[in-house]
Automatic annotation (TrEMBL):
CDD domains registered for this protein in UniProt: GDP_FS_SDR_e
Example GO biological process: 'de novo' GDP-L-fucose biosynthetic process
Residues in the signal sequence: none
Protein's name in the database: GDP-L-fucose synthase
Enzyme Commission number(s): 1.1.1.271
Reported function: Catalyzes the two-step NADP-dependent conversion of GDP-4-dehydro-6-deoxy-D-mannose to GDP-fucose, involving an epimerase and a reductase reaction.
Pathway info: Nucleotide-sugar biosynthesis; GDP-L-fucose biosynthesis via de novo pathway; GDP-L-fucose from GDP-alpha-D-mannose: step 2/2
Entry keyword annotation includes Zinc: no
Keywords attached to this entry: Isomerase, NADP, Oxidoreductase
Single Gene Ontology MF annotation: isomerase activity
Domain NAD-dependent epimerase/dehydratase, residue spans: 10-245
């Protein structure tokens, strides 16, 4: 950060996941790290962040000055429907341990990663950063959503009581290499990537859960990584910031399925199982605040990002999370 005299040691929790791997690509492979910055990518194998003692031991070991906090229990719609209590308890523990320990170790800045599912279910669109606490989230994932909302509560209280400049980003639906491609428990896009890969391999029909009319905005993990690094270095507000493509790039799940079908050159039948839940049908987010800061930021075109994701999955099928 500008004016910083001591070295900047950045600890990335959830460093082996979708966004962590993308940040590692940006700062290491693409040369995005600045002189004097040290980047440490922490995986769940190295510490259980639901455990306060293990969290403290990691801080003792690495002595971070800055944190990008990505570690979380995450999953797709159908996992949320089954395990709302687990999502609430585990994420609440992780976030409390990381944020409290960061304060105790005098960490200068923490950037936590939230999700657009934290916004109220009954609301006006587009949603923006001022609307987080205006009503209950969608019942399908309220455990996760409320736990993530509490990060914002913690950050604001920590600033008022201790002057800490801890903040959060709110990405829309993230996808890319190193995602969790589980058909049962993954998010919609990676689950469809896996389903389409198998349908092409096995010569079967592609089955899409739901009617395909749900609307979503998608952000490529590498674009999100670049924005997270910018937030860490440059964004000085406590209030969260939505990181997303514009409202005009919102698309249906059917559009997503078609893009994946094109990427794999799948020619078999595509069936929609309308007996399955569609989840929240709409959660259009405004990126106006991001555009005020970065009017010229260029997002990777959706079809190109989907093609890269599908190619990565096909080339890494044996080791990909699924």
């Amino acid at each position: 950060m500008e004016g910083e005299t001591k070295p900047m040691r950045v600890l990335v929790t959830g460093g082996s996941g979708l966004v962590g791997k993308a940040i590692e690509r940006v700062v290491k492979q693409e040369g995005g790290a600045r002189e004097g910055e040290e980047w440490i990518f922490l995986s769940s194998k190295e510490a259980d962040l639901t455990n306060a003692a293990e969290t403290r031991a990691i801080f003792e070991k690495h002595r971070p000055t800055h944190i990008i906090h990505l570690a979380a229990k995450v999953g797709g719609l159908f996992l949320h429907l089954r395990e709302n209590l687990d999502f609430w308890k585990k994420n609440l523990s992780i976030n409390e341990n990381v944020l409290q320990t960061a304060h105790e170790f005098d960490v200068a800045k923490v950037v936590s990663c939230l999700s657009t599912c934290i916004f109220p279910d009954k609301t006006t669109y587009p949603i923006d950063e001022t609307m987080i606490h205006n009503g209950p989230p969608h019942e399908s994932n309220w455990g996760y959503a409320y736990a993530k909302r509490m990060v914002d509560v913690h950050n604001r209280a920590c600033f008022k009581q201790h002057g800490r400049r801890y903040t959060a980003v709110i990405p829309t639906n993230i996808f890319g290499p190193h995602d969790n491609f589980s058909i049962e428990d993954g998010h919609v896009l990676p689950a469809l990537v896996h389903k389409t890969y198998k349908a092409k391999r096995d010569g079967t029909a592609l089955e899409v859960w739901g009617c395909g009319q749900g609307l979503r905005q998608f952000i490529f993990s590498v674009d999100l990584a670049r924005l997270c690094v910018w937030v860490l270095r440059e964004y000085d507000e406590i209030e969260p910031i939505i990181l997303s493509v514009g409202e005009e790039e919102e698309m249906t799940i059917k559009d997503v399925a078609n893009a994946i079908v094109d990427a794999f050159e799948f020619t078999g039948p595509v069936n929609y199982d309308t007996s399955k839940s569609d989840g929240q049908l709409k959660k259009t987010a405004s990126n106006a605040k991001l555009r005020r800061y970065l009017p010229n930021f260029t997002f990777t075109p959706f079809h190109a990002a989907v093609k890269e994701t599908c190619d990565w999955f096909a080339n890494n099928y044996s080791v990909a999370r699924k």
